[in-house]
Design brief:
The protein has about 280 residues and is of the alpha+beta class. Among the domains are: about 60 residues, Tumor Necrosis Factor Receptor, subunit A, domain 2 (Ribbon), CATH 2.10.50; about 80 residues, Ribbon (Tumor Necrosis Factor Receptor, subunit A, domain 2). It has a 3-stranded antiparallel β-sheet with strand order 1-2-4, with no helix packed on it. Strands 3-5 form a two-stranded antiparallel sheet. The protein has a two-stranded antiparallel ribbon with strand order 6-7. A hairpin with a 5-residue loop joins strand 12 and strand 13. It is flat.
Length: about 280
Amino acid sequence: MAAILWVMGLSLLMQACSGSVGQTDRGCVQWRQSGNDVCCDSCYPGNRLVTPCGPSPKDLCTPCEPGTFTKNSLERRCTRCTQCVGAQVLQKECTATRDTQCGCKEGLLCGNSQCSFCVTKCGKGEEPTKERTCRPCPEGTFNDQIHQMCKPRKTMCPNPDQILSVGDASNDNVCSNISIGSTHNPKRPDTTDHSWPLAISVVTIIALLSLCIIITAAVKVLQKREKTPDKKIQIIRPPSDEPQTLIAVECSFHEAQQEQGSSESLNSKDSSERLIA
């Protein structure tokens, strides 16, 4: 009889413990009056909705069964807890409000944020692949972190004598006095922004000089015109511009000379005749 009572007490204790994991309250935490009933707006955390409305708020929601959980305050069904299997290891037990948290064994990493699968952890000098494995960094690249993609070696020494250590799959190149070497190739300043103002200034100066020269020349021409007096040109014209009039005048002039010559010859002839007589 004592053994039977001990077994019954132990079973009741186990049920109480399993029902109380992550559970603080039961039923509906927020509700509103609807006639003679109340309607639930939100269940207690870890409770699922049984019926939207009813006479008592405690009967509207019920806790999730062991091995299940819910994050939605009005979910009708609870979700079964995740089981950590294979390469996964248990980190945190499932509760009525939170799913199981799994991790991965040593040398492996979680493949996603939920850690639903594990992948091989790649070390320095390696990078992960789509097949969830690792491969060495290709030539000219390196990786100095855990489980990261390889990147190109970017440090280039100006002279071979300045190479302190040559890079490999896990390290970049290292140069000695790299800051001094970088001063041999200074970056030329960008003069694009300064060329436009200079060109505009030159064009403006040339335009002003041209305008001054034109104004000065114009003033000198006006002054010269004011000093020069107006000269009236007298034009002597013959009595008539017609050619016949000129010919007539010339002919009359010759006739006059001929008449004068004729009279002189007649006078000389008369004188000679008188002497002979």
